[in-house]
């Protein structure tokens, strides 16, 4: 800096240079703050969001809510309250909500999930969705078989539910393809957020599907000890 000042031969330029240097030195902090307020005021520094944050997604509250909605449902057979069918519907929903919650949260604990390649991430989502289904179906099968309900009757209820739930599951497959192929989901966090929003939509439809399933059972289980 000193050599640069000594190289200025014009006294007016030299004076101006010295004043400028002094001004910058004295007001350096104020100038930096002014620069941040004026020049950088519209610059947004993106915050890195981690997939583990989705453990607070409202899909978990939705699962609790629909379980309570189903709990207060009442089913009738020939105009009379059918307590067995009512309890079976609630138990089915309770197992589904419990095992879906477990699998969703377990997926978020996958090592390095934020940086998984897209193909690996999609395989993980599909695997998790399939495991949810397997887990809650196995749980309700074991419960009902343990209560002495015949295997063919248990399979009949499961088949009815899967029949009425088919459109939702099929929509999931289409939406997963769309989410992973979309340019709007540019990182793993936004992809999994899209998947969780999709699952939450499916959860909202659960009470209707449960009601339709058990209304179609007629009085099949009315007189069993449950």
Walk me through this protein's architecture.
It contains 9 helices and 2 strands. It is mainly α. The chain has 2 domains: 37 residues; 165 residues, no CATH class. It has a two-stranded antiparallel sheet. Helix 7 packs antiparallel against helix 9. 19% of the residues are buried.
- Strand proportion, as a percent range, falls in under 5%
- Extended strand count: 2
List the total number of helices. 9
Report low-confidence residues grouped into runs of 5 or more: none
Overall radius of gyration:
31 Å
Estimate the mean pLDDT confidence: 86
Largest sheet: 2 strands, antiparallel
Q: Please bin the fraction of helical residues.
A: over 70%
Category by helix and strand content? mainly alpha
Number of separate domains: 2
Morphology: elongated
Helix-strand pattern: HHHHEEHHHHH
Main features:
single chain, 226 residues, mainly alpha, two-stranded antiparallel ribbon, 9 helices
Write the layout of secondary structure elements.
Elements: H1 2-7, H2 11-26, H3 28-38, H4 59-71, E1 76-77, E2 80-81, H5 83-108, H6 118-146, H7 151-181, H8 188-204, H9 206-215
Antiparallel strand pairs: 1-2
Helix pairs in contact: 4-5, 4-8, 4-9, 5-6, 5-9, 6-7, 7-8, 7-9
């Amino acid at each position: 800096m000193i050599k640069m000042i000594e190289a200025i031969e014009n006294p007016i330029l030299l004076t101006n240079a010295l004043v400028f240097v002094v001004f910058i030195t004295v007001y350096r902090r104020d100038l930096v703050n002014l620069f941040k307020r004026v020049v950088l005021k519209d610059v947004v520094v993106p915050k890195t969001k981690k997939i583990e944050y989705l453990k607070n997604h409202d899909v978990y509250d939705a699962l609790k809510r629909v379980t309570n909605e189903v709990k207060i449902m009442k089913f009738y057979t020939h105009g009379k309250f059918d307590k067995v069918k009512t309890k079976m519907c609630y138990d089915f929903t309770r197992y589904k909500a419990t095992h879906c919650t477990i699998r969703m949260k377990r997926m978020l604990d996958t090592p390095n999930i934020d940086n998984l390649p897209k193909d690996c991430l999609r395989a993980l989502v599909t695997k998790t969705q399939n495991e949810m289904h397997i887990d809650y179906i196995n749980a309700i099968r074991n419960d009902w078989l343990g209560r002495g309900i015949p295997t063919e009757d248990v399979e009949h209820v499961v088949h009815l539910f899967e029949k009425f739930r088919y459109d939702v599951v099929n929509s999931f497959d289409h939406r997963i393809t769309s989410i992973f192929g979309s340019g709007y989901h540019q990182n793993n966090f936004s992809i999994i957020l899209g998947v969780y929003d999709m699952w939450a939509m499916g959860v909202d439809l659960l009470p209707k599907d449960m009601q339709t399933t058990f209304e179609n059972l007629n009085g099949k289980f009315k007189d069993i000890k449950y």
